[in-house]
Every structure is written in C-alpha cells, then in structure tokens.
C-alpha cells in the first residue's frame, strides 16, 4: 500500500468513527486530517515529475523513456529507453523518428583504444526473447540530430519507434535536465552486454 493510499485509508477510518477526538495538542481529528492531506499535496508537488508511462507493443514492453533537454537548433539531443521482449520470438528496433529533429539515428558509444566512438547501429538493435535492450548514457541511445524545437525540461517528447515485428509505436519520452543521468534504469542483461 502506497503512502497516499494509507493516508486515505486511515483518514476514512477516523471519519467513520463519527467522533471529534481531541489529540494530545487539542487538535481535532478533522483538523489533523486536513493538515496531513495538505502535507501530502505539498509533497507530491515538490517531488520529482511523473515518469513516462510504460507502453506495450505486441510482446514488447517499453519503459523508462527519457531525453536530455536541448535548445532548439541543437546539433544533438540524446534519448534513452528500456525495451523488454516478453515474447518467444526475437524483434528488432529498426529506426526512430520524430518531428522534433531533422534526422534520428539509433547509435552506440564504445570505448576503443582509450577513446570513445559514437557510431550508428545500421542493422538495428536486436531484442531476443526474454531479453531487455537498455538504451542508457554511455551505450546505446537515440540521437536526435539538428533539433527543430527545444526539448524543455518537464515536457514530453513523442518519438516513433519502428520495430520489425511490433511495427511502429509512438512513445512519450520525459524530458529531463540537460545534465541528467536519468531515472534509475534496469541493468542490461548479460546478452546485451556481449553485443557491445
């Protein structure tokens, strides 16, 4: 049971008693419930923004979708996502597209000879049955090149993901701060680490 559910549950129990019980400091339960409810609302408003909703596409579960904020006309903005294949057949992330950029590529950062390379994944990104593809900083990512609009922190950016089997799926990516390391993402499976 989450905190807000507990608050509602205990608030309803107190209300159903039908008595004005005075607490240690002379505050009625009604006032105490009002104060507690106010604290929950303030906590919710002060807390982090909502995470992008999970999206189901065929046997794929798409989650933890986010981009780093970028100004309009930026050369590059990076986006990340986790794609889990819950089916029995392999699928492949073939491409991505959005109206927010001139060009979109699926890319991979590798460490080669003491330096980093950032290259397109030409054949797409395979997702084996029961496996996860975790696109995260320092590895696979979706690169929005020559952005046409600003990706503003707190906004949602729709991006279409094209899969071999699941087809075209529109996903709303949360836009986080430009320096964000992102929300906690699941660790990549061993099979994905071997593909690097």
Protein architecture, described:
This protein has 196 residues and is an alpha+beta fold. It is 20% helix and 41% strand. The chain contains 3 helices and 11 strands, in the order ααβββββββββββα. Strands 1, 2, 3, 4, 5, 6, 7, 8, 9, 10 and 11 form an 11-stranded mixed sheet that branches. A hairpin with a 2-residue loop joins β5 (101-112) and β6 (115-120). The longest helix is centred in the first third of the chain and has 18 residues, at 29-46. The protein is globular.
H and E order: HHEEEEEEEEEEEH
CATH topology of the largest domain: Immunoglobulin-like
Cα separation of the termini: 40 Å
Which descriptor suits the 3D outline?
Answer: globular
The helical percent reads 10-25%
Helix count, DSSP H or I runs of 4 or more residues = 3
The major beta sheet can be summarized as: 11 strands, mixed
CATH class label of the largest domain: Mainly Beta
CA gyration radius, whole angstroms? 22 Å
What is the total number of structural domains?
Answer: 2
CATH architecture assignment of the largest domain: Sandwich
| Low-confidence spans | 1-51
Which secondary-structure class do the elements indicate?
Answer: alpha+beta
* Total beta strands: 11
Mean pLDDT: 78
Estimate the strand proportion.
35-45%
């Amino acid at each position: 049971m989450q905190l807000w559910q507990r608050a509602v549950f205990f608030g309803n129990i107190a209300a159903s008693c039908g008595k004005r019980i005075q607490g240690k400091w002379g505050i009625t339960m009604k006032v105490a419930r009002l104060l507690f409810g106010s604290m929950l609302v303030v906590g919710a408003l002060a807390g982090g923004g909502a995470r992008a909703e999970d999206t189901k596409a065929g046997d794929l579960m798409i989650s933890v979708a986010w981009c780093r904020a970028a100004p309009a006309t930026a050369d590059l903005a990076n986006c990340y996502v986790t794609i889990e294949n819950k089916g029995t057949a392999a699928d492949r992330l073939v491409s991505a597209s959005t109206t927010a950029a001139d060009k979109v590529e699926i890319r991979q950062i590798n460490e080669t000879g003491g330096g980093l390379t950032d290259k397109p994944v030409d054949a797409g990104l395979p997702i084996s049955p029961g496996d996860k593809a975790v696109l995260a900083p320092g590895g696979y990512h979706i690169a929005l090149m020559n952005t046409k609009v600003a990706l503003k922190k707190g906004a949602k950016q729709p991006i279409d993901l094209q899969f071999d089997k699941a087809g075209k799926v529109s996903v709303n990516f949360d836009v986080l701060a430009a320096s964000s390391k992102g929300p906690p993402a699941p660790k990549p499976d061993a099979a994905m680490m071997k593909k690097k």
